[in-house]
Amino acid sequence: MNPVVVKPSAWLTGGIRTEQVNHLTLFKFTEELSNRLQELLDKKKADNLNPEETAELEAISELDTIFSYINAIIVSQS
């Protein structure tokens, strides 16, 4: 069986937006991707994720970590 791999870049065109916060432009998830993340987190909490969903959750979480880092740099440089 091949491991399931989902790349964070899969959401570059459909899951990412920018938002003006005060005078800064920050990276955010779209509402759709935010809802999907919450759905996957709920399923994980219920111990009900399949391998594909686990890979998807890991990829979205990685993207969230990247955005948090980039947004922190943007804020610290303002």
TrEMBL record:
<protein>
    <submittedName>
        <fullName>Uncharacterized protein</fullName>
    </submittedName>
</protein>
